[in-house]
Amino acid sequence: MSASVKSYAAVDLGASSGRVMVGRVGPDSLELTEAHRFVNRPVRVPEGLRWDILSLYGGVLDGLKAAGQVDSVGIDSWAVDYGLLDADGALLGNPVHYRDSRTEGVAQKVWATVPASELYAATGLQYAPFNTLYQLVADRLTGAQRLLLIPDLLTYWLTGEQGTELTNASTTQLIDPRTRGWSYDIASRLGIDLGLFAPLRQPGDPAGLLRPEVLEETGLQGPVPVTAVGSHDTASAVAAVPASGERFAYICTGTWSLAGLELDAPVLTEESRAANFTNELGLDGTVRYLRNIMGLWLLQECVRAWGDPDLGELLPEAAKVPALRSVVDASDPVFLPPGRMPERIAEACRASGQPVPVSPAEVTRCILDSLALAHRKAVQETQRLADHPVDVVHVVGGGTRNALLCQLTADACGLPVVAGPTEAAALGNVLVQARAHGLVGDLAGGRELLTRTQSLTRYEPQGDTARWGEAQARLAGA
User: Fold this and answer.
1) Whether residue 478 has pLDDT greater than 80
2) How far from 144 is each of 92, 136, 155, CA to CA, in Å?
3) pTM score over 0.85
4) In the annotation, is 233 catalytic?
């Protein structure tokens, strides 16, 4: 390998699987290969739904061993969840899953102390029942001396060093997006001890070296640094949006769809709060102004209920189903818990007086039309609320493999869609590591390298966008 090309291990953990990818970066090259993929299977115990964090850590170690010698390691994962450590640094229990029911009704208790409008004006974070703030109010925290968000917990086990990476911290509802520091007033009013958190880290900061025991288990030769990346997977994915200029929207697709804009400052208006847009922090002082949409979770759960049919056969059948026959609100919390997804979608259609999808193809088309409609609404509203027009929508992540969803999103938005890269979070992870080690320039430079080296597909809008407006009005009960 050329001396000007370096290798970086990107540990990228999603809600259903984890992977260790190896990115090889040079002045004019960026190649990504998969070293190891493993299942992320939550476990339901008598106390509730928990992450199997030890299994995940084992998958990370296996992945680093399979990756071979690398110049750095970075970790990104889903947001909001955390592990608690005692005074000796030992984990107190398996981290609670954000889909656990323990936060039911907690938001209302919080708002009795800090009204929702004040909470939004201070932190800019959308309402979601599983936000870290609500989890902390629900959590007894017995014996806890330290709280580490999931990627920071795994980094600690790899290095022995503790820190709190900023982009992920911004999803806790305890960060002020204007100062990019802790919101001490909110924490104090709710009795949350910010001393539980380790010091803040920025993407690109050093996060320690792999411990000797980790080197021995993985077969790597030290020293191997661990670099803080955009440890919220959406922050890494947005860093890998292959856009030029500022007039673009993005949709990070996977279990969730995160649709929004990259801004220089947060939007903290009451209208923005009412529309449930969030202000999360990104690289280089940027703000990820976006809405959470339920995403391909709806289809994943249906496929599981149907016995895992071949999507390669199901999607062409769904494409033959008449468009917009039935749609549901893809952001409705009724779809958040696992189980009975086809039945719940049918019930929602029945309750709204629409034809009830019966076959897997009909349910799939209902889901994809509904997601495209939710994408349209988010892209339209985010432009209006931020006064930030766009000319193109970039779709990144797992949904780029779904050509039907990409085309429907272009049709619904009335804008061209550029789909790719699929492994956006891992690529963003790699780019931050490469930049920290002097191989890549600024955010724009990384995106330009992505555009030159990654496979992208363009979808032009087709058909009349008015029918999507009619479906949106129908869903709103107009």
Assistant:
1) no
2) 7, 11, 19
3) yes
4) yes
